[in-house]
Structures are given as structure tokens and as C-alpha cells.
Amino acid sequence: MGSAKNKTSNASRKARIEELRRAEQARERRNRILAITASVVVVAGLVAGGVVLVKSQSDKNDTASDSKASGHFVTGSDGVKTWKGTLSRNHVTKTVKYPMEPPVGGDHNQVWMNCNGDVYAKAVNNMNAVHSLEHGAVWVTYNSKASDADVKALAAKVKKTPYTLMSPVEDQKDPIMLSAWGKQRTVTSATDPNVDKFFASYVQGKQTPEPGAACTNGLSQ
């Protein structure tokens, strides 16, 4: 019975992700059309003397305040920590200092890290990764204390799971950690059953501020 239930749950989750990916592709096509239209408008505006407006917006971004992520973690009975407090979602150009490592939300860069099962060998910019979390991605992170076997096994899992990404974060507290928007937990190894549980709950989970938003056509190393 349990096996059948798990298969049904996995099939349902895969179907939901596929539906979201189709919606993402349609959104990207619309965005390309809008971008072309916007470019024409911007050029016309510049010719008409719109440079002042563009410069004003740029100055505003350059002086944007750091992340307003105030609060603290509360650990649930399942071991998942939930951020209780404010997680702002402004797009900023300044370096953001987050109150947790890895960060689980707050102000971030306007460009996301690609998170379509992307595995990065080097550390990524927190501000881009947080944008990925906003889109419903789960971020797998590890430091030098994690075993090579665990890193390889986790990378294999990430590569076959849409809306996930993986990268090293040397300054994190524990060897292997999983993060989603407003959620975080430590796992003991790649075979820890809590890895699958976290993925099932938070890949495009209810905590996602922008479900179905793009995890491709962003930043990659």
C-alpha cells in the first residue's frame, strides 16, 4: 500500500512540475514579445529625451537598501526550520547581507540562477540563488566536511529534478543543508530520507512566492 501511495504521489508531483514547465515556456514566449515591444518604446523614449527617466531609475537601484529579512528560525517537529519574520522581495543591485547562511529569502538580484537541475562546482552569488528560491526552487548546499560520495549522489538527484540547484557554501553551519523560500533543514547524508521529503514538500511548494516562474534563461557559471 505504501509503495503504491508513493508512486501516486511522485506521479502527481511530476505532473504538476510538467504543467508548471509548460506554463513557464508559454510565459517566456510572451516575455520575448513584450521585450521586443518594450525595446521599441525605450528607443522612442530616449529619442524623445527619456534619458533622464532611465538614469533616475538606475540611481534608485544603486542606492537600494539591503535586505529587510528580520526574524528568526522556528524548528518544527519534522526538523524543518521555518523563518518567522519578514522576508522582503525587492530587486536590488547592492550586495545584500542576509541574517542566515545559506539565505532563505529577502531582497535579491533581478537575475536568478538557473535552477532546472543545475549543479554548480563553485559557489554562486547568494542574491541570484535567493531569486531562484522565490521561483520555487530547492537549493542543495554543502561544505568541505561533506563526503565526496554524498556530494556526487546529491548532484545526481539534483540533475534529474526540475526546480533545484546545488552549489558549495563553505560558511554554512552543517555539511549538507537544504533550503527553500523561508524553509531550511540539515540532512545527515545523501541517503537521509529527509532529502526526498524536503524535495516533495518544497519543490514548487506552497511556500513559493512565484510558482511556475522561470528556472531557465537566468544566470549560469
TrEMBL record:
Top-rank taxon: Bacteria
Source organism of the structure: Streptomyces lutosisoli
TM annotation in the entry: 33-54
Alphabetic keyword roster: Membrane, Transmembrane, Transmembrane helix
Name of the featured protein: DUF3105 domain-containing protein
